[in-house]
Amino acid sequence: MASIGNQAGPQMIGAVGEGPPTEVVRLGTAKGNWFTRVGWSHLVGILALAFSLFPIVFVVSAALNPVGTLSSSSLIPSNVGFDNFGSILSGSFPRWFLNSLIIGVLSAALSMFISACAAYAFSRFRFVGRRPGLLGILLIQLFPQFLAIVALYLIFTEVTQLWPAIGLNSIWGLLLLYLGGALGVNTWLMKGFFDTIPRDLDESAKVDGATHAQIFFGIILPLVRPILAVTGLLGFIGAVNEFLIASVFLTDDSVKTAAVGLYGLLADEQAKNARFGLFAAGAVILAIPTVALFQFLQRYIVGGLTAGAVKG
Amino acid sequence: MAEVVLEKVNKQYDNGFHAVHDLDLDIADGEFLVLVGPSGCGKTTALRMVAGLEDITTGTLRIGGRVVNTLSSRDRDIAMVFQSYALYPHMTVADNIGYGLKLRRMDKSDIDKRVRKAADMLELGPLLDRKPKELSGGQRQRVAMGRAIVREPQVFLMDEPLSNLDAKLRVQMRAEIAQIQRELKTTTLYVTHDQTEAMTMGDRIALMKAGVLQQVGVPQQLYDHPNNIFVAGFIGSPPMNLATARLNRAGQGFELSLGSAVLSLPDTVLAERPALAAYAGREVAVGIRAEDMEDAALARDSSAQGRLRAKVTLTEALGSEIVAHFAIDAPKVVTSDTKELEKDAHVDGLLAAHQAINTFVASFAPRSRVRPGDEIEIVVDRERLHFFDPVTGVAVRS
């Protein structure tokens, strides 16, 4: 064995020396210049970025423009000041902002919980009316809530006479409405996610001695955090941004949400130009909680996507 | 500690599928009973009924003398090990093991103590702070076991707990589970489709087919005295060789025409099975275990009384034995049992070309020098032949 190894060595060296110098082939390189290979994607990215950033930059710059009129605002403000923020915070806006936050947080949290309960039942139990129930939710969801606004208005007029606290012109009435509206999509979204949690886990917990409530809170909910984060975020954004129904329901200045209130600033044709700076400042402030929530929940959302299937 | 008694237990699903028929099973206190059968035979359904995860359609289930038909799982004082282990992914190993105790509002220090004890028993000590996804398959299996033993329940229920492990680990865990069960003396119902697990682990085996219990007994009894062709074919590896033969009277005794070979039957065979005489002049299904055949070249008995002649098609030298496959000219046995066995082995279609040929598998001593293609003589231990009715598949005995 050893002699063969010794012979092989010099022979191989000789072979390399005798052969003509070979051309260096770099593997993994493609044809074409830099632009056709990579550059075009940068261009697309820059265009997409400009397209999406333009309105944000415009609003931020309008908010910082101390003159505060629509006609004087430009993409890059000539003068920078926080006058608009000062004046909007001294008016009704803090109240509107608070109303928006209350509705946003409560409707997100409550609809998340109600939908999770419904999704758990639809995913885990077999009962009469399960299929019709699921289909019913889906069908109702196909129609925009706005279609029902006349009916809703009539219903809530009755409700206002009986219980003014949850009727028209009350954020609690609007909250109730939002909860019902979000139920459909969230339940479907969550049910799909719940179905991916192996039933063995439920059964194992059941044998371990857990009740349905203990299984739901102790085993299932911690495992569906990503979908809770998604539905919570969507619920919050939806409630804070909703304008149409809120504008019909909320007319008193003290109960308006920020979206309705800010629109009110521009309602007057003459005031539209003059108050644009205020409007923009309010819009920027209103965006803060949404962005903050997104940052906070990002971990769960991304975590949920990458964790993949939970092998029991 | 408790005994588990099933009396005429039935399970019929809403769609009409009858999964378990009149199951009678009596598991003694501290016994390790293995419920075995091909997939879809209702063994897991039976286990789930004992666990309380499946309703009992009719019949009575008693655990420790108490009828528990309508009792929920949590009140039955049982612990179950799932095929998928069903570990809670968001909890550490310690929390997984202690979850059942926590639900029972046990003191935190007591939980700690018992979790540690169970972990030591399973050598999980260093892993207590890990999450299930950071564990290997074997470790997960141990955690699932730990979760069961920490509760100190009256009954362990195990649903194919080793089927997700690789072959080597399976052999190791097989021994460990049996060892733990012997130490704790907890009544255990263990479901598996693997006859090796059934043979090696159980105090007794209960074999099911299509929802019907076929035979219950200690492993050796099922191996030596199967009730029917299904039990004969399912228990044992390689499975029992079966062929259709004709039983003829020859003077005072009987002889068996097995294809072109004729085996004269010793008197003891008939003395043990008086019912066999009724098959004289008729066909009978004959079963021969692989180890009851020997290469004639090695046999001391030189009489030509019990010999088959065949051509070897394949040999597998395992060191301790040589497994020889050879074609035999006696027709195959075809009953509902053999069809069920073939379905379980997934041979239908796959081996369609060979179906016409009846192949026997024999285990020869390693000294045998047989090679594929050899024409050899095989000595059959005629005392250890098995006889079954060729139509019903029921063993012919008294």
UniProtKB/TrEMBL annotation, chain B:
One of its GO terms (cellular component) is ATP-binding cassette (ABC) transporter complex, substrate-binding subunit-containing. GO terms for molecular function: ABC-type transporter activity; ATP binding; ATP hydrolysis activity. The keyword Nucleus does not apply. The keyword ATP-binding applies. It comes from the Bacteria. Keywords: ATP-binding, Nucleotide-binding, Transport. Coiled coil: none annotated. One of its GO terms (biological process) is carbohydrate transport. InterPro entries: AAA+_ATPase (IPR003593), ABC_transporter-like_ATP-bd (IPR003439), ABC_transporter-like_CS (IPR017871), ABC_transpr_MalK-like (IPR015855), ABC_transpr_MalK/UgpC-like (IPR047641), Mo/tungstate-bd_C_term_dom (IPR008995), NA-bd_OB-fold (IPR012340), OB_MalK-like (IPR040582). Residues 4-235 form the ABC transporter domain. PANTHER family: MALTODEXTRIN IMPORT ATP-BINDING PROTEIN MSMX, OSMOPROTECTIVE COMPOUNDS UPTAKE ATP-BINDING PROTEIN GGTA. This is sn-glycerol-3-phosphate ABC transporter ATP-binding protein UgpC. It comes from Modestobacter muralis.
